Amino acid sequence: MFAVLLAISIGAILAVQTAINAQLRKFVISPFLASMISFAVGVIFLTITLVSSGSSLGIPLDLLLNQPIYIWLGGIGGAIAITTNILLFPKLGSVQTTILPIFGMTLMSMLIDHNGWFNAIQYSFGWNRIFGILLVLLGVLLATAIRSKKNEQYSPQTNKESVRNLWIWRIVGILAGMLLAIQIAVNGQLGKVLHSSSHAALVSFFVGTITLIIIVGLKDRSYTSIKEPFKQAAPWWIWIGGILGGSYVLINVFLVNQIGNGQTVVLALFGQITGSLLVQQFGLFNSLKNRIQPLQIIGLMVMIAGVFLIRIF
Known about the structure:
Elements lengths: L1 H27 L2 H22 L8 H6 L7 H42 L11 H25 L4 H39 L2 H23 L8 H4 L9 H19 L1 H22 L11 H19 L1
């Protein structure tokens, strides 16, 4: 029972992390800088955790030279996906920012499993998986239908453009989820090579941080906005997004060994959706408050059923 509750809790952590990082962006302005801070905090947290456990931080030189280059680059996909979530949150709200990447992640995970990409164990498509992905798609349509319907009631002249923009952002959310699925597959292989999932997580966070430092330097050309949260007396919790992300990775590793990968994914998904509902319903962490509609809840439950079919059977 403890493992079940823990799995649901780590799912909720992801929804909370997105809301916190979105608030951090309001102070530093740049979504890339907000992601960079979150990743850097995650690196510090994971480093302290590994050192405290007595694990070595070094990587043997022969591993660096003999492994395919992509195995070290999972953090790039994670950096892009987290930055995308920060951009999506104020435009789509907590629930859609959660469920659209889930759809993309589920779809890409099936493709990776079916084709055995990134040295993953190959699982061919079966009727349960096909039916499961259809349920996930139906759930996404139900959960996003209400907002589209509301948009149709305002300003008919600009309605087509606003709806089109919404769907562009939704597609971006799906693509972000696909990147996360690739990151998970790559990090899974890295964990096998390093014989430590926690060590692989640190490498992923470190690569993501370096990627974002370069992006901020090229695009924003300044890191001075990091001072803004201090100047504006921002709440302390805007700095903990990286700690939540690192905690999610570490607890996930523990749970996979306790209750298996399939159950961990489904329970964490339930927690993630529940967390996003609470964030949106009550406007937690200074986010936009939006009442959840019954049709959205039905859509989310349909999604969970679809993921359950795909992951468990």
